[in-house]
Every structure is written in C-alpha cells, then in structure tokens.
Amino acid sequence: MINKQLLNPRSIVVVGGSDDIHKPGGKVLKNLLDGQFKGDLHVVNPKLDEVQGLKSYRDVNDLPEVDLAIMAIAAKFCPDTIDILTKKKNTRAFIILSAGFSEENEEGAKLEADIVEKVNAVDGALIGPNCIGLLNQNYNGVFTTPIPQLDPQGVDFISGSGATAVFIMEAGVPKGLKFNSVYSVGNSAQLGVEEVLKHLDETYEEGKSSKVKLLYIENIDKPQMLLKHASSLIRKGCKIAAVKSGGSEAGSRAASSHTGALASSDVAVDAIFRKAGIVRCHGREELATVASIFMHPELKGKNIAIITHAGGPAVMLTDALSNGGLEIPHIEGPKADALLEKLFPGSSVSNPIDFLATGTAEQLGDIIDACENDFDNIDGMAVIFGSPGLFPVYDVYDLLDEKMKQCKKPIYPILPSVVNVADEIKSFIAKGRINFPDEVLFGNALSKVYHRAKPVPENPAIPEVDNTKIRQIIDQADNGYLTPEKVQELLDAAGITRAGESVTSDRDATVTAAEKLGFPVVMKVVGPVHKSDVGGVVLNVKDADTVRKEFDRMMQIKDTTAILMQPMLTGTELFVGAKREDKFGHMVMAGLGGIFIEVLKDVNAAIAPIEHEEAIGMIQRLRGYGIIKGTRGQDPINETEFAKIITHMGALMEAAPEIFEMDLNPLLGSKEKVVAVDARVRIEK
Amino acid sequence: MINKQLLNPRSIVVVGGSDDIHKPGGKVLKNLLDGQFKGDLHVVNPKLDEVQGLKSYRDVNDLPEVDLAIMAIAAKFCPDTIDILTKKKNTRAFIILSAGFSEENEEGAKLEADIVEKVNAVDGALIGPNCIGLLNQNYNGVFTTPIPQLDPQGVDFISGSGATAVFIMEAGVPKGLKFNSVYSVGNSAQLGVEEVLKHLDETYEEGKSSKVKLLYIENIDKPQMLLKHASSLIRKGCKIAAVKSGGSEAGSRAASSHTGALASSDVAVDAIFRKAGIVRCHGREELATVASIFMHPELKGKNIAIITHAGGPAVMLTDALSNGGLEIPHIEGPKADALLEKLFPGSSVSNPIDFLATGTAEQLGDIIDACENDFDNIDGMAVIFGSPGLFPVYDVYDLLDEKMKQCKKPIYPILPSVVNVADEIKSFIAKGRINFPDEVLFGNALSKVYHRAKPVPENPAIPEVDNTKIRQIIDQADNGYLTPEKVQELLDAAGITRAGESVTSDRDATVTAAEKLGFPVVMKVVGPVHKSDVGGVVLNVKDADTVRKEFDRMMQIKDTTAILMQPMLTGTELFVGAKREDKFGHMVMAGLGGIFIEVLKDVNAAIAPIEHEEAIGMIQRLRGYGIIKGTRGQDPINETEFAKIITHMGALMEAAPEIFEMDLNPLLGSKEKVVAVDARVRIEK
C-alpha cells in the first residue's frame, strides 16, 4: 500500500540504470538527476562501476539500505531482486517499469503474483509493472518526457495506460496545464487507479492538497472504492474528470485485447461517475480542456460575458455555450452605456462585448472591470483575443494576467493565434496561465463542467423497507423467477405501490381497504352474476363517505355477500427495472414505458442505493420528460411517487442482493399516484 | 463580378501602402513583396516617394494603368479614388481592406453602395470592404499572417469574417493543412461567399482545380445560389465543409450585432447543407479536421483498421468511430496469422492492430501492406504513433509517408506526441502530410465525413402535380386559411392521398370509387336508419369482387338508395408540414405525430422540391424510425407512401409558392398506405 517510501523516499535505487538514455533504465536515471532528487541516488548495473556520473553497484547485495527501487530489468529477474531488497535492504517501495508480466502471458502473470506477495509481506508499495512510473514534487520517477511543470496546485493525474499518460500530458502541457503528480499504474498489480484515489482522499489536507484529479481508466475493477473516494474528494471541494475508454462494443474489444480484462458495462460507468460527481470525458483533448477549466475559479452561475475583438469566434462560442445550456445574457443600462463610451465607435457591449479589431489593452481592462464589478448578471468571462499578425500583443496578455489575479469571477482566456503570437502565448503561459485555443472545444467543456452532477451525500437518505420480510422471502426462494404471490409480498415489503385488490364484508374494513388501495376505487358486489345489471358496479369512487354510502346500498343487493375493490387504474405507462452488474452492485433503470423504452431507449440508470434527489434527476433527464411534466393539456405524472418507487427499488436491491434482475413493467402513472401493474423478479444466489 | 484582373492581375497598386508593416497598408505590401508577385507593383502614398523600396506615387492620377487596386485608406477617400482608377487607369478589380462602411453606420453604408455602383459600371470585381483580402497562387493580397503553404490541390477557403479566416488558418496550418486560395469577403458588398463559390463552380476544371472548399459563413444571403453551386461542385467530385455560425438563439443575436444582418433559420441551414452535400462543422478545430480528412483519398467503405503502438488512444478511437457508425472489423485468417508472425510477442492483429511500444518502422510497413493488400474487409487505416521521448522516430514517419504514396486506401496519421517528437512531425508535414493530433476529434470528424449526405442530382426527379388546377385554386384564394373544400381540392391536385368518401348507386361506379378510395373500405347503405340492424354495414372490404358482391346484396336491402364508402382508417399518427422560409424557399418537415412532435421534436426537414431518396432519408433519420420500421410485432408503416406524400408536398410548394404554411396533421400510416386525415393551408401572397 502507498507509503512514505514511495511518495517521499530518502533514497532511490535504479535497478538496471545505464548510460543509454534511449532506454527506460537510462532515461529514468537522467530524469531523476535532471529533477535534482534531494536524497541518495544509487544505480545497480552488473556491467559498470559508474553510470551517468554515479557509483554503480554490480550486485544488488552490495547496495546500502534504500527506500525505493525503480526497476528497469527483465521481468524474470525481478522476483529475486525484490527478495533481496525487501529482506536485506529494508526497501519498502517499488516502481517496476519493465513489461513482460500479466499483460503478456500466463508465465508473466505468475511472476507478477509472486512479486505482489513479496511486496505485501513487508507492507510495501508497488507501482506497475508495465508502466512509465511515478512523478511528484519529490522526484521524477518516470522514464518518459515531457516532464510537466510541477505545481502543488496542479493536477494529480492517475493513468491506467503509460503511453496514454504521456499523450495526455502532451495535450495539456503546451496549453499551460500544470501537474502536481502523475501515477502510471500499469498492470495495477497492487496499486490501481482506485487505490491511488483512496490514498489521495485519505491524505487530503484542505488548503494544501491539490483540488484537481484526472483519471484515465481502461477497467474499473473496484467501482465501489472509486465511488466512495471520488465522491468524498469532491465533497471536500475537489474536481475530478476521467476518461473511461472502451465504452462502445468494439471499444470494449479493443480494451480487452489490450489489458486482458473484461470491460465494464458502459451504462454502469456513466451511473457511477454521475453518482460520484466525476466529469466523464471521451478523449485526451476534452480531458485536457476540462482540467484547464478546473484550474480556474469556480463558475458560480450560468451567465457568461463573451469579450472579444473579433466577431466570428464570439458567435461560435455563443452557439456552443447556448446549445450547452449556458446563458449569454443581454447587458444594458447606464453602466453598460458608460462602458460603451470608453470603446471605439462601432463597438458593442450588449454581449458578446465586441471592442473591435482595433481594441486596446486598456479597453479590455475597462471591460473586465465592468463585468467584475458592474454587471450583476455576469458570473464569468471568456476573453477572445488573437492577432492577424500586425503587431505584438504582450500588453494585452499582461493586462489579462493582471486582471485574472484581481477578479473573483473566472476569466477564461481564448487565444486563438497560436501561430501569429506564439511567443506572447508562451509568455502568458509562463506566468502560470492556461490557454484555450479553440472556443468551441472550450464552450462544450465549460457546459459539461457547469452541469456536472453533485456527488451523493456521505450518508444518503435511503428509504426504509421491511428487511425482515424481504430476507424471509429471498432466503426461502430458489434461483429463477419468483412466483406471483411472492412478488406481491416482496413489493409490499419494499414499499412499492402495486395494483391491489380487497374483498371485505364489513363497512369499516371496506373503508380501510379503500384507503389502502388508494382512491379512486372500483367497487363490485361479490355474489350476483350479472353485477352491472343489478347496479352492483360503481366506478371511480373517490372518498370514504361514498364508500360507506355505496357499501350500505350494495350489500342490500340480492345475493351479495361481500364487496370487491380494485383501484381505478388509468395513467401513462412507466418502467422501472433493476439489474445486478458485476462489481458495480445493482443498477436501477427508469423511464417511460412502451415505445420509449423499446424504440427510443429513453432510460436513465443509477447505482443502488438511490436518494430521492437522484431519482428525481433520473426522471427529469428523460428525453420524454415533457410527458411526465404534462403536455397537450394532459395532467402531469406524480414525480414524487415515481421517484419513490425508484428509491424503494434501490433499497430493495440493498436488502436483497440475490435479485439478479427485476422489472416493474408497466407501472401506471397519474397525477395522484404511480402503481406497479406487473412485476417480475429473478433470483440468482 | 470575378474577373481575371482580380485573380491574376498583371499589375497591382496598394493605395495607402506604407513603410509601417504594423498597419494593413504596409503589411499587405510586404506580403506581396515576400510572395514575389510577378507583375508590376505600385504604391500610392501622398507623403512619400518611395515605400519599401518601391516608387510611390503621391497622387493616384499619376499612376500608370493598373489591373487591381488594394485599398488601405480611410473609407471616405475610397469613392473618389475608385472613380479615378476605373475611369483613367482601366482598373477592373478592387480589394478594399478598410473598415468604416456598412458594418459601422448609415453613412458608411452609403459610401459602400456608391463604390459598388462605380465598380459595377465598368464590370469590375470588388472584394470587401472590411476584409483581410485575397490570397492565391498569383499574389498574397492579404495584410495578415500566417501566409499558408500554397498548393494547387490545397483548400479553396472563403470566409465571411477576416479575423476568423486568420484563426481558421492558424488551426489548420500547424497540422499541415495546405491552401490554394483564401477569399475574405468582408461586407460582401459585391462578391459574397455565394458569388465566389459560383465562380469556383463555373471555372472548375477536372484534374486542375482543387477539390476541397471550406466556407465560414455568418449569413446566407443567397441560399439557392449556394445550393446550386455547392451541389454542382460536389457532383463534380469536390468536397465542401462549412461553418455557419449563429445557430443558437443567442448566437443569432451575436451574429446580428456583428454583421447587421438577420440570421437565417438554423434548421433551414441544416436542410440546405444536406441537400447540397456540404459537411456542416461547428468550430474551427472541427473544420480544420474535416478539411484535413478531405485532403486524403476517399474512404470507400466504413471498415477501418486501427494500427497502433499504444493501447489507450486505439481504444478511444475505436469508441469514437464505433459510436459514429463506422466499423473496426475483426481481422483473422491465415494472412492475419502470417502478419502476427512478423510482430513482437504480445502484439495483436485482431484490430486494433497493436504492435506494442517496441514496434518498429519495418513492422509498421508490414502491417500497412497487409491492410492494403491482404485484408479485403479494410477500407482505410488510422495509424497511431507517438513517442515517450526515448528516441527519434524519423524512420517511422518517413516509412509512413512512403506507404501513403503507395497505398490506394486512405491512411490517416495520428501523431499525438506534439511535444516529444515535434521535429519529426514538422519534417513529416514538410513532406506535404497532415497530422491529426487527437484521435477522438479525428474519429468524430471521419464519421461525419463518411456519413455526409449525397448532393441532390442536377435534375432531380420531382413528382408531377396538376399545376393548372393548383394555380386555379391559389389564384382565386385570398390571404389566410383555405376553406376545407378548397383544401381537399388542393390535396387531390397535388396527388396527396386523403381520407375521402364516395356515394354511388351504380355497381361499376362503386367499384371504381372503392379503388380510388383505396382498399380496404367500409360500405354502408344510404337510406335505412338502423343500418347495422338490416345488415347494411360491411367493414374491411378488401377487393373489387367483394365490393361487387356486397353492392348487389346491399342494394336489395329495403329503403336503400345508394352505397356510401369510406376507407377503413387505422394506423399510426404521422405528420408532414411545410413552411416558407425567407430566401430559402419552402421547407418541408416530416415526422411521427403526437408526442413525437410535441415532446420530442422528432422532425426532419428538407428544402422543396424533394426527391424520393431525400424523402426516404428524412423518414429514416427520425429517432422514432423504429416505429415506422415496425416494432413489438406491429406492422411497419409504408415508407414509400409516406415518402410520396413528402415529395408531393414539395412539388405543391413549387407550384404554389404563395402557400406560407401547410400542415397535414395527422396522417394515418399503415402497412398499405398513408392518408391525410386533416389538413390546413395558409396563403400569404
């Protein structure tokens, strides 16, 4: 497990270090030297006495005690070396760069298991094998470049793929994205993405730890661990974005062939990310852009001022933000007029604020000040400023940097002229700033960040269900489908409203039964054959008084022995289902029924247990939500009751994890209630 | 209008040319000099006798004759100068860089109109005002940088915004995108995007003209001209991509404030682009990526081989392509086995073809050869090759360049290591190649390009309608809604099937009427009061024989004088509507009815007239298409009949442009037919 020897070693040995900086063993040593590692640095190389100016030990047995070993030797030599290091050299942390382990074949998998056992035996930490290493404020333990600019408030980046980690850094670094640490977990033999995230959560210190985490994941082995610590970090004020690749069917195949692991279901991934509050990205460029937005102050509302010296990009950004659900509100009034006075004729302040190709740094300052102080309907600013190449724009970017220091509202710099003013952009980035070169990629990412889900609370309010009764039904059940009677009992125990019926012959019992069924009800005489002909059927009975009155009347009808009641069932078809997903727990799905499921696949999912707010979110994100809200003069469907069924379904799954699949299909929803008309439950213990 | 003086001038004068290269007049002169313009180059500057080493005339009257004038003087001086140039100097082409015209105020608009009049009077060409100029193989007539690498097969780029043109070039040039010409049309006083496209169409020469056109448009003033020439170019083998900004409501405002013009309806823009076969993009990065794909050989099928030395990007690309409707087919068989033999242990050829971090240039060559020659189920290759920074990769990129010369299947280079191997990428681009740095942006763009619509044929097959009758109804109608009788007549004249009825008392007439109504029909006796009781109603009569038989029987029923027939109407609610869109002509919309329109907005649009194939496309792109195809054991809806109503609706709009709005709502669609049950027509002459 992660320890201080891994994070902040007093001494490091590179086993397999060499003078050849075109190979991992040579390059990682060079990176450590370039990074001026402050502790003792050793090398083991059986053929040399000196490597890159350092003393080299020909035999690992000759080493002094050492905290961390970075290993760049063939897989087959690793176990013995680790044996010596753990037993004789008090080494408690290992980074294995070498490949040739479980990713390659069965033999490699055995070597890997052997190594994990040896490291675990001394409570050691193991990163890799088959990775690029680890990089933090204390040492550059990676064999790759670029070595990003390190900043305590930079990104903590954990990657399940080494090459992808490099390429993600290459997407972010040129734009100014800074890093605090990079963990490449390789085969995750001992420490995977989840374990590193857990560590970052458990060691989080407000005001000291970085607030931005990025993940690149090909497999989620421990979704519940990921959920727990990602949501915990986010509740502490962190922001997390992640790429989970392999979502498409073909992509899953690609991920499998690469890592030898089965792909997780993509819907479950979406659900767990939403529950945690993680922003899901689908590529390196998007991940870098979202991370760059995370590095800015929080955008506290959806109103953006677009400040520009060129019309086109402002229009495209307006489209992107507006289509993404953000606002570019009109700016007007005396303060807007006063601002306009300071700009050249032909400028516009109505938003986008266009101060023309001839606009100056001073004018930009006036505009930013007005947006910060005068315009209450502005929550953040996007500043677009490029150059046709006529003159330098250092003054503008310096001003922008100054204003970014002063302003509380976030200011996003969109500097498109990556050719014409490359030097000015470089100087701006050197001040610690980040550039968004493309306004549309920025706008899409900002919308995504702004609309990200909130993490579930630490102790979510989950509805109570009758656990004793549920356990009794489940424990007695065999694998396969539950009988209809047991299904009814299970729904009752779970507090899921179902279409019921009652047969009563006592007035008070009939009223109680009607109240339990829920008004309106249908009352029918029991006994007479042609019930309608004798006045023995009453539809749409709406209250207890009417039940009493009708009971008295109906019981006097000839041959009548009792009253049968059923709820008046009308309403819109709805659907709620649940499915056990390997490792993820149970997923509950909800949507409109019929064609909405079958043709439009208009269903949302959440991982059980589910809070009320989460269930409401599932309902409101449906494409067909308009039907639930009420459309064409139709009554709405009771959202609270629909949500209640979803949360109770979630609670049932917690109580009865043996349920493999369960459908409430259809439910009938109306303004008053939502009732399960048919249900199926499949047990797989 | 565009003439040879504009495109290939023998002589150019820069009016307002100066030594100050930080201003447009100085910079455009520098660009002309740097570009080694081969003709005579003059300068007019009232204060100097020599400018940038050239003789400068203090008075435009002193100039010799000159083909093209590039003007960088204040707006108010332009008309007089143009007067002299057109009348005394035989100048027939003008590029006005200066601002201060219609984009600024009323006064400027008058100056602009005056200039257009003067230029038109001599059949001259005018680019601008308020633009960055024109750049082609003959001269660098722009005042901005970068000056892209010019290539006769590079992009012809027409932009409605000067600054945006610069920023788009800055997005494309670093990736290797090459240009043949750049037209910045500014205020489009005489020549707009449409006119330039028309010129490119009319002067197109197979084998000589470039095949790729890019457009950046803020307003479509002449949609029909755009449609005509864009589709014509595409039919000739060209590829066109365009950004039309201002699509969102807020974006339209931004566009208006920028250009002083009303925004076109965005749905109409989508419709006209689809009809023309233009790929619509929504940002600079996307436009540059699509253009880069256009510069590669045509992808002839949807099967892509992903060739990679790193797993992560391959998985993300697989996801992007697969979600975009392309295939990453399994590769297997003896030839695949033979290829695998040539790779290092642990490689995979099943697609993605992963030849590992240690993979060599030679292996890449073997893989590409196999994909080109051996694997019939592969139509194109995406090659992902970055670097962790250990050693140079010139050999790999040189090999890639060689293979791209040899192969017929397109090869798309995805080189993500823009930091680690920046020099190698630069050298690859210098060979004329293009890089796609982000695999997901590439994958999304490739899917978009592959699935782009085909342009309408030059002479589309439009159904015939009864023009005489239609004109008669329309000519007699007042503005407002047509009467129900006239609506029925209009539908009949347009050949749109409607729910009709007939009353007949002759056997043959009844059969004819039934055939006209369409089987099955309902037959009812006319005369008897309680028709059912006397056997006077027959449902679901399916053929002429039954009509004859039932006619004979029913006419003998007491009091019967005639037979009333109606079609048996059952089916799924559908919708077809039409609306006149300013400048675009009529837009016809089609979808499923009811909630599909009202809640899901599931409607597709096309510009009239509409071909059968186009109508089928409108139907098949519906999200609810599954219902039309038939779902849950239900019959499908007759697509041919649905399409027929759409094409006839389009033809009706051509015959009667006075129709402002028309709804067929609902139509009832079944396996046999689609029938208009209700219709509304609004005339606005």
From TrEMBL, chains A, B:
The keyword Cell division does not apply. It comes from the Bacteria. SUPFAM superfamilies: Glutathione synthetase ATP-binding domain-like, NAD(P)-binding Rossmann-fold domains, Succinyl-CoA synthetase domains. Residues 488-524 form the ATP-grasp domain. SMART domains: CoA_binding. Keywords: ATP-binding, Nucleotide-binding. Gene3D superfamilies: ATP-grasp fold, A domain, ATP-grasp fold, B domain, NAD(P)-binding Rossmann-like Domain, Succinyl-CoA synthetase domains. InterPro entries: ATP-grasp, ATP_grasp_subdomain_1, CoA-bd, NAD(P)-bd_dom_sf, Succ_CoA_lig_flav_dom, Succinyl-CoA_synth-like. GO terms for molecular function: ATP binding; metal ion binding. The keyword ATP-binding applies. This is Acetyl coenzyme A synthetase (ADP forming), alpha domain. It comes from Salinivirga cyanobacteriivorans.
